[in-house]
Amino acid sequence: MPLNDLWGRLEFKHFVNSLLRLSPPFCKIYSNPKHAEPLHNMPRDNIEFQTADHVTLRGWFFRPPTKAPETRLHCLVMSHGFSALKEMELDTFAEYFTQNLPISCLVYDNRGFGDSDTKEGQPRHEILPSQQTSDISDAITYAQSRADVDPDRIGIWGSSYSGGHVLWVGAVDRRVKVVLSQVPFVDGWQNMGRLIRPDIMEALNKSYQEGMRVRGRRCSSFL
């Protein structure tokens, strides 16, 4: 293995370990006001980027104020779970990371939620895992295009529903160097069994199937 490649791997391993060490103290932010004071005052830029199917997603880009703008930093791409918006504490995680580590963070709203668009003719607030995982890869592409990001040092972070997504993306997108998954959603059927009462499961399944049939008829009408 070339020496520079080995050094890069060791450097990124240190970056990952630093992120993991930060996670437990983060819980104290909510219980101790002193920990919360430095947050929500980190500089951030409004950003937008295009997905592969030409949908505009919008979010924020955070970087440490102590780093020169031309410095290329590691970047952590962060997406929220299920129907949550970036304002629902995703910014708090990003601010905490950029305040304590020499990294940048890219956070964004999932398509159809918050400030992000959806495809023309498609409803908002629709959650399709295949689209959301594809959008994470598109967010990586945008991050790599920035002059202040090291394109070879990209990590992804997800929580709950997106925690499952990042496991998938990390397995298929070779550009990802680290995956941070918090309380991941990895088994839909098992989770349904825990959340839905058994006596209404059959009716719920029928409603899902009918919804898929309606969607199929709607799509065929455009052909």
From TrEMBL:
Keywords associated with the record: Hydrolase
Coiled coil spans: none
Protein name: Hydrolase of the alpha/beta superfamily
Hydrolase listed as a keyword: yes
Organismal lineage: Eukaryota, Fungi, Dikarya, Ascomycota, Pezizomycotina
Gene3D superfamilies: alpha/beta hydrolase
InterPro entries tied to this protein: AB_hydrolase_fold (IPR029058), FrsA_esterase (IPR050261), Peptidase_S9_cat (IPR001375)
Pfam families, sorted: Peptidase_S9
Organism domain of life: Eukaryota
